[in-house]
Specification:
By secondary structure, this protein is mainly α. The longest helix is centred in the first third of the chain and has 34 residues.
């Protein structure tokens, strides 16, 4: 008898759960319909193209059907890691990404902290507007601006340095390998620092103002408030942003290195994306190019998972 009652109760609860789910779906019908185009976009342009990864395991010929392709196993991956040009592009990609990420984080946090301390709303809004406007420029336009600023003949940077007698003759900034990564990094900062600052300013608004008032009563100055209240308050946001950036270490900016590269800086300018473009479209070595693309994405995923795991073990905020 008790077993029958228990089964009846379980059946009723299951039926109620199904009804509540259907009711909830009915209430959110419009939201589901609105999200449908974005889901289809992800499926069509993110997941279906993964079918092309099979080229990394084939001696792919465009004039052959899928069933007629010759499968070569891991041949292209072995050849990839034996290719000095790929290893060079890997080094360049990691170097540019680390410089851009480090500079981007430090400058964004510093500017956000300074703006949070500004009491004049007009000044604060002006600085925010000026700093995040470059974000809306395409990288092609930004590259053209950088090329003009660093031009040997009439570049504004050379003109300023020469007028201040800091240099005797124009410097060929875009032809000296040791400057190239730093040019990429600081250009990224100029373009994206304002946009990245918004994230940290938003996190600062969630900090309880009572903490600042209590610190003021205890005699804390601005620097101590920043160190003991502001920075710990945005620490979870900083951790999340760092985890997300770990998944983009091999996604160095493509447009700037590609458009600014020349024969004198070729060894420091070629990234993995440029390598894929070169071997996939120019040299028609589709298998090798696809293998390089797979390697980049798999490493990014692994780095993301590792960063998330470390944050979890350290008791910090995490994505998953």
């Amino acid at each position: 008898m008790n077993n029958n009652k228990k089964k009846l109760v379980d059946a009723n609860s299951t039926e109620l759960t199904k009804k509540s789910k259907r009711k909830l779906l009915g209430k959110q019908k419009m939201l589901i319909l609105m999200s449908l185009p974005f889901v289809l976009y992800i499926i069509l342009f993110r997941y279906i193209p993964l079918w092309g990864w099979t080229m990394a395991f084939q001696d792919y010929k465009p004039y052959k059907s899928f069933g007629e392709q010759d499968w070569v196993g891991l041949k292209w991956f072995v050849q990839l890691f034996a290719d000095k040009e790929f290893l060079l592009s890997l080094r360049n990609t990691v170097g540019m990404s680390l410089i851009s990420t480090a500079l981007g984080y430090i400058t964004a946090i510093i500017i956000a902290v300074f703006l949070n301390e500004v009491r004049y709303i007009g000044v604060k809004r002006f600085v925010q507007t000026v700093s995040y406007l470059p974000h809306f420029l395409s990288w092609v336009i930004v590259t053209g601006l950088v090329a003009n600023v660093l031009s040997v003949e009439d570049g504004i940077l050379n003109n300023i340095l020469m007028s201040l007698h800091l240099i005797k003759e124009p410097v060929k900034w875009l032809s000296i390998p040791k400057y190239f990564w730093h040019i990429i990094g600081w250009t990224y900062v100029w373009k994206e620092v304002g946009w990245n600052t918004i994230v940290y300013l938003g996190a600062m608004t969630a900090i309880d103002p009572c903490l600042y008032e209590a610190a003021q009563i205890d005699g804390c100055g601005r620097l101590r408030k920043i160190w003991h209240i502001t920075l710990p308050g945005i620490k979870p946001t900083i951790i999340i942003m760092m985890i997300m950036s770990a998944g983009h270490i091999l996604d160095a900016n493509f447009e700037m290195p590609y458009l600014l590269q020349n024969g004198m800086i070729q060894d420091v300018a070629e990234t993995i994306d440029i390598y894929v473009l070169k071997y996939g479209f120019k040299l028609s070595r589709y298998g090798l190019a696809t293998a390089a693309g797979i390697f980049k994405n798999v490493v990014n995923i692994i780095l993301l998972v590792i960063a998330n795991y470390i944050a979890k073990k350290s008791g910090e905020e995490r994505l998953i």
